Amino acid sequence: MSSTEGRQAYQHYGRAVADRASQAEAFDAIGDRYDEVFPHKEGQLAAGAWLARELPAGSRVLDVGCGTGVPTARQLAEAGHRVTGIDISSGMVELSRANVPGAEFHVLDVAELEERDLGPFDGVTAFFALLMLPRREIPVALRALHGQLRPGGLLALGMVEADVDDFAIPFLGHTIRVSGYLREELRQVVNDAGFEITGEETFAYAPASTDVSPEIQVFLNCRRLP
């Protein structure tokens, strides 16, 4: 895949179906309760540490679906990297700005990245952000992230292992829609988007709230291929 194709991944995607208003409203309402329900985040911290360690000092990193900014944006900023976070939830972005004042945050959908002049980046994190997309869009979003990275740039990806597509689930008193893959299919989707997988870790995670089901989290360390 050429870099031009990566930069224009959403050009032919049916944007009319990319309406995330209800998702954004749910996370606006949830706010910092998200960190209360997912308090430990060992896998996310480990993947963030890999990225912080592998990138040269002062690298530019994009945090997709930054949430409250904790732990990832803060972790990368404290490691000396220049962090730009995006999230569809204005409430989450507000929390991020308060939690990580040294970073830059935008209310922005991954589908809008190609329209903004934010990159290029040396690294990208996407921890559970792509989970919120329908399956048909996840490969498009991965190609868009490929286009935001410099050649050889790194992607730290976190997903929940689940064979579901745009599936409605109750989440902290709200309804959100999620998608996922079984592990082998996830690897193939990531490879097809132009990434080499250099490492993988899996964690069984039990959220602090009984309203949220236990899950298997898969973290992939990836490098952008030309």
How would you briefly describe this protein structure?
The chain has 226 residues and is α/β, with parallel strands linked by helices. Helices cover 31% and strands 29% of the residues.
What would your notes on this structure say?
- It is a single chain.
- Strand 1 (60-64), helix 5 and strand 2 (82-87) form a beta-alpha-beta unit.
- Strands 3-2-1-4-5-9-8 form a 7-stranded mixed β-sheet, sandwiched between helices.
- It is α/β, with parallel strands linked by helices and 226 residues long.
- The chain has helices spanning 3-7, 21-30, 33-37, 42-54, 72-78, 90-99, 138-148, 183-192, and strands at 60-64, 82-87, 104-107, 121-127, 149-160, 167-171, 174-178, 195-205, 215-224.
- 31% of the residues lie in helices and 29% in strands.
- It starts with a helix and ends with a strand.
- It contains 8 helices and 9 strands.
Helix and strand sequence = HHHHEHEHEEHEEEHEE
Strand content: 25-35%
Structural class: alpha/beta
Mean of residue pLDDT values: 92
Radius of gyration: 16 Å
Shape: globular
Q: Strand order within the widest sheet?
A: 3-2-1-4-5-9-8
**Ranges with pLDDT <50 over ≥5 residues?**
none
Beta strands, count: 9
Percent in helix: 25-40%
Number of helices: 8
Q: Major β-sheet, in short?
A: 7 strands, mixed
Oligomer: single chain
Characteristic terms for this protein:
8 helices; 31% helix; globular; alpha/beta; two-stranded antiparallel ribbon; 226 residues; seven-stranded mixed beta sheet
